[in-house]
Predict the 3D structure of the following.
Amino acid sequence: MRIDVLTLFPAMFEGPMTESMLWKARDHHLLDLRLHDIRDYTTDKHHKADDIPYGGGGGMIMKAEPVAKAVEAALVDAPAGTPVIMMTPQGRVFSHDIAKELAQHEQIILVCGRYEGIDDRVRELIITDEISIGDFVLTGGELPAMVIIDAVIRHIPGVLGAEGAADADSHADGILEGPHYTRPPEWRGLTVPQVLQEGDHAKVAKWRREQGLRRTWQQRPDLLLKADLTEDERYLLATFANEYAAKKR
Ligand code: 4H4
């Protein structure tokens, strides 16, 4: 998979994009990450990539032409339908499902805004998707781009090693993962659940699913409204509610 990142600050990507899983993905040619400095596409002698907003209001807005030229350069030889994604608080909120959707493409282009955003004519003419990583405003789209890259590459076969591991992630099937443990079996008076120590795969899988349901019920009950649950699992949730009610009495 190829990911093009258009940014005014390519150096921001050097650390995170050269560590562990991301580096392995690039080293194994599973990820072709290309950074483009938008400033390279300015044409004036001051390499101006931003300007004051029409109508006043303070702050600066990224100029349309350098961004458009950078996108056009990244789109050379790109497959038809390659997503050109702008990270913005106004976008659809990023999720596991969106990460999986984006991972299906041969190439995606991530456009990192700065300042108060990008001239809206870029959004009208060039951007095909707007994604937000949450309802807050950051100083730039670079960190959201790194979040998106990290989540998307988990769905590229071979990146995680254990095939299908991304499908076992929290949110993969609509609920959270349960607890994880490693050695030692006892630590500061807390013991690893016996079922995990015994290692019966079927029992472990059942325990993990139940623990995921319990954690989802406790931490993110909203997810349960959309999750695909069996009758037994719905019954189990009712027992959690009864346990909780009994404790409250
Ligand atoms: C873009 C700030 C648009 C404000 C930006 C606007 C996020 C986010 C983000 C730098 C850029 C900010 N990107 N998820 N949250 N004028 N990006 O904050 O639309 O308010 O992805 S604006």
User: Anything to note?
Assistant: The chain has two domains: 2-153, 186-248. The mean pLDDT is 94.
